[in-house]
Amino acid sequence: MVDKSLDYSIVRVRFFQNLKCESKANQHEYSLYSVISRTIINVELHRKKHTMLCLQNTTNTEWIAVASAHLDNILIDHAHCEKKAAANAMSMVQRYPDKPHLVREMIAILKEEWEHFELCFDELERRGVTMTRDKGDFYVQELAKLARRQEPERCLDLLLIDVLIEARSCERFSILSKCEDIPEDLRKFYYSLLASEAGHYRMFTDLAREYYPTDEVKARLNELSAAEADIIRSLPNSPTIHG
Ligand SMILES: [Fe+2]
Ligand SMILES: [Fe+2]
After folding, report:
1. Ligand 2 center from residue 165 Cα (angstroms)
2. Packing angle of the helix pair 71-95, 61-69 (nearest 10 deg)
């Protein structure tokens, strides 16, 4: 289901992210690799119409029109999404402290999502837009209802719901980065986040595969992604990242 070229480019990006750019040579190599990898990811996203991200449908054109006409709302909602992604990583540590690899990955993702929140906040300040209170994310709330209550099924469902949220966010960032009605600086901003969010998608998928049999992961992801597609279809095309 997952495209191999996307896998490799994400692995490369994450490798160089882990390198922490210790020397100038590394920094140069890192930026070069990031640009190349992001280009590969973007081309693949476009070519396969997002289906390799395990999504069973694509965003409709009405949402794109609404989003591009209400960019301040999109940015505010996006900032809240990044804040909640960081909080979600912390709640996974709270739930599963006995899974060392999961904890290690959540530490990394929390830092990245919090950095993304800061980038959104910088962008809002640069545009002179003041953040408003979080109105909640109906899409995520509906997905959360699908998680089974008992363990070990609950952990698998929470990981796969995170897979789907990252995949859908990735698809929407890709759309925003290509939308000609959006100012170029903002398109670049969304493009710059694409590789990182695709890396999160891959990381949650890998964790699910590490802790659960492949067949079980595949079957449950199939069920949840069908439900996710229904939720997306039912939404009113509001100016939010998952609207
Ligand atoms: Fe993020
Ligand atoms: Fe993310």
Report:
1. 8
2. 110
